[in-house]
Amino acid sequence: MERPQKSHRSRQSGPSAKKKSNADKKKRDITEEKKQNPKAFAFNSKVKAKRLQSRAVEKEQRRLHIPTVDRTTGEPAPYVIVVHGPPQVGKSLLIKSLIKHYTKHNISEVKGPITIISGKQRRLQFVECPNDINGMIDAAKFADLALLLIDGSYGFEMETFEFLNIMQVHGFPKVMGVLTHLDKFKDVKKLKKTKQRLKHRFWTEIYDGAKLFYLSGLIHGKYVKREIHNLARFISVMKFHPLSWRTSHPYVLVDRFEDVTPPDKISTNNKCDRNVTVYGYLRGCNMKKGTKVHIAGVGDYNVAGLTGLADPCPLPSAAKKKGLRDKEKLFYAPMSGLGDLLYDKYAVYVNINDNLVQYSKVGDDDTSRKGTEKDVGVDLVKSLHNTKYTVDEKLNKSSINIFSQKSNSLNEIMNDDDEVHVKHLVEPKEELDTIDSDDESDDSTETGSPRFKNDKKQTFADNNIEEEREFHEGRIRRKAVFGNESKPDDQEASDEDDETENDNSNYESSSSDEDEEEEEEEEEEDIEENMGNASKWKESLLERTVSRQTTNLMQLVYGKSETKSNDSSYENIDASVSSDDDDEFFKPKNEGKKKSSNGLEGDEVNAADCSKFTNYARIKDWKNEEIIESIRDRFVTGDWSKAAQRGKAAETENENDDDVFGEFEDLETGEKHDGDKTGDTNKDIDADVEERRLKKLALRAKFDAQYP
Ligand SMILES: Nc1nc2c(ncn2[C@@H]2O[C@H](COP(=O)(O)OP(=O)(O)OP(=O)(O)O)[C@@H](O)[C@H]2O)c(=O)[nH]1
């Protein structure tokens, strides 16, 4: 016999009993408080309520996306974080500070991608974006996250908007803003005001609530630890959604390259075809041997060989433990001269700092060795001692430069016939050249004026942003001036200003006074008005989407649609697009209209599949009562035998209809067939057909009677 189970007896003493009672008490306190003072737990500020609501909706919206299938096998390649900003904004310093935070190592220079391990399952690759358009285009192609650095003391510069526009056409990776040089503000109120203004402008450009970090200044030449810690946290937990184009195309961000052309070949012909081996992580999908590769800024090349190498910066073991041990905080920055081990197909190079090595500079005049036989090995080593520059240094001297536009770039070294070896973990890196800032400062010294403004303003991409070149702090800067924005100095500083949620000292707005909030609200509205509610560059998104939609793959394969789309909305869009078309000007009058109205040339996405035959005569108007009635008997509740009869009647009708279209001309024989005549001559055949049809009907009726 089964005994009834004992009911659970909760603990009366000990730590778990204590814990439970504490939790119960807390819960009771909160509900009691709520009962006593219900107002305290409701929204008492419409600004806050509005903000909370929009945040919740945004979060919800962000969650909604088409599920992406992760087809990557093995360890995922590091995420690429591109640090972008105008010259001297602090890009290198930010990368150095982040590397220091993650690895506890100081790096002296930022050159090429720097790979670090940021967590048990995550690696990051930091790249400084070059300050030229070509570099920006390349960076936008591989960035998983773009950190946009903005000089807070100066305001937005054109470089930021240029990069945003470039990213827009490359799938728009994740974006976060970082304000630097905030320590230049002496007035706290002005600082707050500026922060808020820049934040709103940033939101206008990206989206409401886009993350903007503030780096308040430098301590011992580095950004404040706490602020870097917060930024690093965000990067470490950020979710990266793969961009569809990238996941279906293999690409490599080169973090090291070597010229492996035999030296004698170069010595005989300095301009000979070179063999270059590039290393980097392969992303996207697998790459086949023999694939042609495009090297940004250089050209298209054949891949001579492809080898999988050991990961130079492997993820820590999957053993269960919290966090990373210091030993596991690896990093790999071959171009910055970091990481003591270099792996190659043929060798492992150990990097030993020069100060740790004492070279025996033994010359030929060494008396101790006199008389001994000359050893080839010794000679070789001696010649190595005498080498002034390493291969890397020599390469650097020749300024191999993929991204920027130097004349002596890799472009010149490599000819079209050159072969490229792509090795496992790669990225074509380039010398991250400091933009034209040098040239600019040269200009400035020529000008000799401490500060000048270029009267010539350029409108940026029709989006209400104007470029204003001015001489500032020893160089020419390209300030972004917004058409509808009042000057910052004109704006009154408000007493209370909310800090953004990611403000390092305070994550939530702390003001509670209603008056203040109303003021704040008005202020925010003012700002919104001044800045326009939506960024102009986003307006082109719809157009872009529509223009993309008009590319109809089916039409490309099967030719133009011959049927008119039923979807009126698409017709409208189509009409608007075609009316914008410049070609319209060159068409004979009314032709454009004719085409769009008869739908023959329409690019409607929803047009019926012209590859399949559709008998439009059979399409019925289902609003018509009679037609609805005609199918009533086809349902379970109806009389099926009636339906069968009706069906036969309809078929006969259709067959008769078909006879109407019986006329045709045999193009091969030139013989003309008249539909009616054919009907007469084939009377006997028709009689047979009719007989067979009746037989069929009888059989069907019999069947229906058996299985009602
Ligand atoms: N006062 C102050 N100085 C800063 C700040 N951020 C960077 N700097 C200084 O600005 C200078 C330029 O910093 P970098 O990190 O070299 O700037 P960059 O953007 O890499 O410069 P380029 O590579 O030449 O474009 C350095 O001297 C930094 O110390 C900041 O927030 N406040």
TrEMBL record:
Subcellular location(s) of the protein: Nucleus, Nucleolus
Record's keyword terms, sorted: ATP-binding, GTP-binding, Hydrolase, Nucleotide-binding, Nucleus, Phosphoprotein, Ribosome biogenesis
Gene3D superfamilies reported for this sequence: P-loop containing nucleotide triphosphate hydrolases
Biased composition (Acidic residues): 433-445, 491-502, 511-529, 652-668
Annotated Basic and acidic residues bias: 21-36, 536-546, 585-594, 669-687
Record field: catalytic activity: GTP + H2O = GDP + phosphate + H(+)
GO biological process annotation, one example: endonucleolytic cleavage of tricistronic rRNA transcript (SSU-rRNA, 5.8S rRNA, LSU-rRNA)
Residue ranges occupied by any Bms1-type G domain in the UniProt entry: 77-241
Listed transmembrane segments: none
Biased composition, class Polar residues, residue ranges: 566-578
Similarity-based family: Belongs to the TRAFAC class translation factor GTPase superfamily. Bms1-like GTPase family. BMS1 subfamily.
Protein name according to UniProt: Bms1-type G domain-containing protein
